[in-house]
Amino acid sequence: MTDNKGFTGDAPTTLKEIFMVHADGENTRIPVSRFRDIMEEERSKLSDETIQKLTYYMDKNNDGFITLEEINKLEKEDARTVAKGAGVQLEAISSFRRGIDVVGKYYLTKEQQKLMYSDQYDCCPPPIGIVLLSLAQIAVYIYYSATSGEWVWISPGVVTSPLTFLPDRRQEAWRFLTYMLVHAGVEHVAFNVIVQLVLGVPLEMVHGPFRVVGIYLGGVIAGSLATSIVDPNVILVGGSGGVYALMTAQIANVVLNGDVMSACSRVIRVVVVLILLLVDFGYAVYRRFENTVSSVNVAFAAHVAGAVAGVTLGLVLLKNFKQSLSDKVFFWIAIIAYFAFVIFAVFWNIFYPEYPPTTYG
Q: Residues with catalytic annotation?
């Protein structure tokens, strides 16, 4: 029986965890030949030749032993450098080190998908969609803060910005999307950027940046359209509609792939999303009816619409790892519901007579 000294939790996945399971302590050395046998068992999807080359590459001082220090050095080395030095394929490095397998563990479903993820993932296209959006939002915030000198609360320039959604400028259609770039203070932009990066980047690594950015932008558009109907006199700023869409896209993933997830994974996803939604939505409702700086209130309707869009667009855009008849039904229900809402909202904005008069100049 294998001794699990030095490791707690499920089966070891990283090189360090594997070393600690089979070593008596951090200072213990494991012979290269024995460590190679261990890795052939732990990384069975790699060829024996690849494992042998990488194992001998780890032995930097050529003393015939693997130490924890040598493992730590390998973990920090660039993957291309390791591949060139060991004479192996670049794709094998991430699988050997399991550096990106955490993403597969929590965002993938079928076991074979988890096992193959490290080999298949080639960072093309790279998961930078949400990162680029976040950088754009930070850059716009810095611009308006620098020009006004106001770095904590909302900048006066944001209220009249050509990016902001203004009720009397609703015929300038780009505003239904560009309002996501401007924010009402440092707290607003910081929360949105942090949450969307934490949720968005791992999703992009599994489902691709185009799908995830599509969900985000769909949530943003749904947020502004819903606000223009439910709360038509509110000035709208911030990417919260997109952030909420990323949150509820987790629920869409459970709907699509829940039967091949562990029960614990399903529960954790749903509970965490619901807690985040309830806490932030409650705070948004409170701030909506509280007088704020520059008379800009939080449009909670955008949060609700973004959340609904996240579920519907998630069912349409996220990868489906099993494909069943019920999933196809969900797909068409979701796509019809989303576009029906968009078409309805567009016509409402065109023909509803009670909007504030449009102004220009």
A: 240, 303
